């Protein structure tokens, strides 16, 4: 192989880029680098709504796709970019009674409903989110008179399924709602077909919902959607007892998380 050198190396460059050996080496390099490029692409997939906001601060509140578990686990969520500074990933929302929340364990594990309306993100997704980042929790709610209040917690996480998706919440700040969630701290999640509460009976069956029940609840956000005050059946509604008691079913409630920096 003979190379003729020009004063600027142009002859060598021309020869190399057209030689069969150079072309083979190029293909091999592309094949070797392809997995690295794919991995880099996966790194930029949004884990939660804060990632979406940080990428583009002009994004409005609405439905977005996130990847809590990885590139093959795309799920849709509602991102609240306004409340208390925004960047919130909504994992639970009740607003009109259009979705039945009295569901079995597998539904609560994987998620159900529509991110554009009422939905539950899924315990498995929630576990992976809180495993990867430290989060705070905001619970927004509204009654049928239009009054809005909130409860905020500086720390929120849940364990894996093998540990019953146990709830860990602390650092309460009162936004007018009072604290109805601390009673559920350290409790496993229960549904009508998987009883993990401390009551002698199944709290999910007794109060027609699913939650981190204790013995049994002070809030029942996944209970029966009823329109305001209703004492027909005790404490089965969408309730936050420290604000409206046990016989007032809220108009809206949403539970949302945001990374703590």
Note down, in words, how this protein is organized:
It is built from 7 helices and 11 strands. The longest helix has 24 residues, at 20-43. By secondary structure, it is an alpha+beta fold. Strands 1, 2, 3, 4, 5, 6, 7, 8 and 11 form a 9-stranded antiparallel β-sheet that branches.
Describe the protein's topology.
Layout: H1 10-18, H2 20-43, H3 49-55, E1 62-66, E2 75-80, E3 88-94, H4 105-110, E4 112-113, E5 119-120, H5 123-132, E6 135-142, E7 148-158, E8 167-175, H6 203-206, E9 228-229, H7 241-244, E10 248-249, E11 252-259
Antiparallel strand pairs: 1-2, 2-3, 3-5, 3-11, 4-5, 6-7, 6-11, 7-8, 9-10
In short:
The chain has helices at 10-18, 20-43, 49-55, 105-110, 123-132, 203-206, 241-244, and strands at 62-66, 75-80, 88-94, 112-113, 119-120, 135-142, 148-158, 167-175, 228-229, 248-249, 252-259. With 261 residues, the protein is of the alpha+beta class.
